[in-house]
Amino acid sequence: MLTALLRKGAPPVVEQRNIHLVGKEISYTLKRSGYRRSISLRIDDRGLTVNAPLRASEKWLHSVLQDKAAWVVKQLDSWESKKAAPIFWAEGARIPFRGEEFLLTLTPRSRGVAPQLHGEVLHVPVGVEAEAAHIEKAVTLWYRNEALRVFEECVAHFAPLLQVSPREIRLTSARTQWGSCTVQGVVRLNWQLVKMPLHLIDYVVVHELAHLIEMNHSPAFWRVVESVCPDYKQCRTELRGYGVAE
């Protein structure tokens, strides 16, 4: 079994574990892979993930986690404090959009009519007694449509400044990325980014367009980003607080 797992292409072995760090019980995901030669820790909106070689000893794992205990607990606490409050999909809910909050109101059901934003109120035509799942579905579709519109406007502004021409703009629902760019010129942007302030949307768009010039994160890449987004470092720091890596 172990020999089979060590073959190239074998999927990582995943376990859910608990450990006490700095007086707190921490749940984490352990991923063992035959490709790895060292242990790394990653913390994001899903919690702590430990990536380790397939044959890493328990003593080694325990030592690394204890050495990083204070950092792990601090980072997890930071993520917890930044988590957005869940939306209760009902009349009067507050929903984020372009860095602001808007009031959600239910209107009589109207087939084929999309939600409409009037001032600070989003009118959702699903019926005044609609179930939460139905409301969420309608608003999510509205978010995605608005996201594509906003992203295309941003690309239309920044692409000429960078002298690039992306082949296509697509929406993504990735859990760990705000955006990505392929060598074929396809730019993918997370639709949930449309909930963020406009300057952060601009930064992510610029970040991905810059990859059409530098397909890496070298100093040359960051110079391209800085040429049209001089406050990119501040944007990167701010964006991390929203729970998805860019």
Spell out the blueprint of helices and strands.
Blueprint: H1 2-6, E1 13-21, E2 24-33, E3 40-44, E4 47-53, H2 58-67, H3 69-82, E5 94-97, E6 100-106, E7 116-118, E8 121-124, H4 132-162, E9 168-172, E10 179-181, E11 186-190, H5 198-210, H6 219-228, H7 232-240
Parallel strand pairs: 2-4, 6-8, 9-11
Antiparallel strand pairs: 1-2, 3-4, 5-6, 7-8, 10-11
Helix pairs in contact: 4-5, 5-6
Explained architecture:
The relative contact order is 0.09. With 246 residues, the chain is of the alpha/beta class. It is globular. It has two domains: 81 residues, no CATH class; 147 residues, Metalloproteases ("zincins"), catalytic domain (Zincin-like). It has a four-stranded mixed β-sheet, with helices on one face. A four-stranded mixed β-sheet has the order 5-6-8-7, with helices on one face. It has a three-stranded mixed β-sheet with strand order 9-11-10, covered by helices on one side. It has seven helices and eleven strands.
Short recap of the structure:
The protein has 246 residues and is of the alpha/beta class.
Helix percent band: 25-40%
Span between N and C termini? 37 Å
Reported by name, the CATH topology of the largest domain is: Zincin-like
Structural class by sheet pairing and helices? alpha/beta
Supply the CATH class of the largest domain.
Alpha Beta
Oligomer: single chain
Low-confidence stretches: 1-6
- Radius of gyration, whole Å: 22 Å
Q: Give the rounded overall mean pLDDT.
A: 89
Main β sheet profile: 4 strands, mixed
Query: Helices and strands, in N-to-C order?
Result: HEEEEHHEEEEHEEEHHH
* Overall 3D shape: globular
Give the beta-strand count. 11
Number of domains as seen in the coordinates: 2
CATH homologous group name of the largest domain: Metalloproteases ("zincins"), catalytic domain
- Tally of individual helices: 7
Task: Report the CATH architecture of the largest domain.
Answer: 2-Layer Sandwich
How are strands sequenced across the largest beta sheet?
1-2-4-3
Strand content: 25-35%
